[in-house]
Design a protein that fits this description.
Blueprint (H helix, E strand, L loop, with lengths): L1 H6 L1 H23 L10 H14 L9 H29 L5 H13 L3 H10 L4 H14 L4 H20 L2 H30 L5 H61 L1
Helix pairs in contact: 4-9, 4-10, 5-6, 5-10, 6-7, 7-8, 7-10, 8-10, 9-10
């Protein structure tokens, strides 16, 4: 979903506007010397940028905090969901099981119809998804319920496991998009607030200061939105690929086990 946003017209225009603004700011810093023709100290500029960025989290009339705190909250929720999915898919899902070796060993037991040892092997890693799936078919085979019953038992267990692997993944991408959109909304609101305030200020110097401060505050929300959205988008892609790999491995292993159990009859 994050990639789809940046491929859309709104995403492309937003990204183009942000890059253009950054290029203009960089050009202004490169061409505008400090008073007396002296070069600007980058450390002072960076320190000012960071100070302004973090000061916008305070409750001020510019209302940047109204967008920045929701962005941070969205980011925190996204990280929490990603951490829970990582545990479910990577740690809990696969466990310490090498799926290929595990399936090879099960098939050896099935070929000699030693279902007790096969089930005992599954019980070594009782929470991993492949042993759970395999045990359902092995128990049906042990009770001589027939090939159809074995297939149904594995299918039933698969229907229980698959939602646990794939659920809540799309929320990571959704929260990444929300972070980006909140950043853009904060920028638009900040610019509107700044330009509306310019009409009330008569002093030219005060107008220039208001414009500079207002634009910097508006850009801070976009920056924060991107800082939060990019890691969430990467996490979504990683967890989506991990879940797809786990599902593919489960499909391959379950088919091999079903074929072996069918031949054992």
């Amino acid at each position: 979903m994050g990639q789809q946003f940046f491929r859309s017209k709104v995403g492309k225009l937003s990204l183009l506007g942000f890059v253009g603004a950054m290029m203009l700011v960089s050009l202004a810093f490169a061409q505008a010397p400090a008073g007396g023709g002296e070069a600007i100290d980058p450390k002072i500029v960076i320190n000012k940028v960071f100070t302004g960025f973090f000061s916008d989290f305070k409750f001020k009339m510019s209302m940047a905090w109204a967008f920045q705190w929701p962005i941070v909250i969205s980011f925190a929720f996204g990280l929490g969901i990603a951490a829970e999915r990582f545990y479910t898919i990577i740690i809990h899902g696969k466990g310490k099981v090498d799926m290929k070796k595990f399936t090879d060993q099960l098939i050896k037991y099935v070929e000699v119809k030693d279902y007790d040892r096969a089930i005992a092997l599954c019980n070594v890693s009782p929470t991993a998804v492949l042993p759970l799936l395999s045990r359902a078919g092995l128990e049906a085979a042990k009770r001589n319920m027939g090939g159809r019953a074995i297939q149904d038992a594995i299918d039933e267990e698969t229907l229980k496991i698959m939602p646990k692997i794939t659920k809540r993944l799309t929320w990571i991408s959704t929260l990444a998009n929300i972070s980006t959109l909140l950043g853009l909304m904060g920028t638009i609101f900040g610019l509107m607030y700044t330009f509306a305030g310019l009409e009330l200020v008569l002093n030219p110097k005060a107008k220039a200061n208001l414009l500079t401060t207002g634009i910097a505050t508006a850009m801070n929300t976009t920056l924060l939105g991107l800082i939060c959205a990019i890691p969430l988008t990467l996490l979504f892609q990683y967890m989506s690929q991990a879940s797809k790999t786990l599902v593919d491995d489960l499909d391959e292993s379950s088919v091999r086990l079903i074929n072996a159990l069918s031949k054992a009859y």
